[in-house]
Each structure stands twice: as structure tokens, then as C-alpha cells.
Design goal:
The chain is mainly α. The protein is 84% helix and 0% strand. It is built from five helices and no strands. The longest helix is centred in the middle third of the chain and has 35 residues.
Length: 86
């Protein structure tokens, strides 16, 4: 999951993070109040979208495991049914 995010990261986001913390803060301090609020909204939206994507990926992995169980899962079910039928 994190691998995909790192691959998608690029361009201006990488450039932004390459700037020193001091310079990034200095740049952000120059924003107007409305620009600050918009920036905060944008960051919050990005965080929420990342959470939703992570959840979707986990749900997909769970569904894949349920739809296509491993051989071990199949053997475990067989063993349980054998024991229960005795």
C-alpha cells in the first residue's frame, strides 16, 4: 500500500518536501488567511482520500482472501469438518 503511494508521489509534492523545513515554514507564513485555510482544507482532504484508499485496499485484500482461500485455509476447514463429524 505505501509502495503505491510513494510511486504516485512526484512532481511538486517531492519538490515541496525537498525544501528545508525552515524554508517551507517561511513560505507558508507568507500565505494570506484565506490561503492558509484553503491549504489546511486541501491537506485534510488529501489525508481523508489516503485513508479511504487504504481502507479500500484492505477490504479488497480481505475479499481476495475470502474468494480465493489458500491451500492452508482449505486444509484447516477440512480438518475442522473431520473433527466435528466424529
Amino acid at each position: 500500500m505505501n509502495n503505491n503511494k510513494n510511486q504516485k508521489k512526484g512532481g511538486s509534492s517531492s519538490e515541496l518536501m525537498a525544501i528545508s523545513t525552515f524554508n517551507r515554514i517561511a513560505f507558508l507564513r507568507k500565505l494570506s488567511k484565506s490561503e492558509e485555510l484553503q491549504f489546511i482544507d486541501d491537506v485534510n482532504q488529501a489525508l481523508e482520500m489516503n485513508r479511504e484508499q487504504d481502507i479500500s485496499e484492505v477490504v479488497a485484500m480481505i475479499k481476495d482472501n475470502v474468494v480465493a482461500p489458500t491451500k492452508t485455509d482449505s486444509l484447516t476447514r477440512h480438518f475442522k469438518s473431520s473433527v466435528l463429524s466424529r
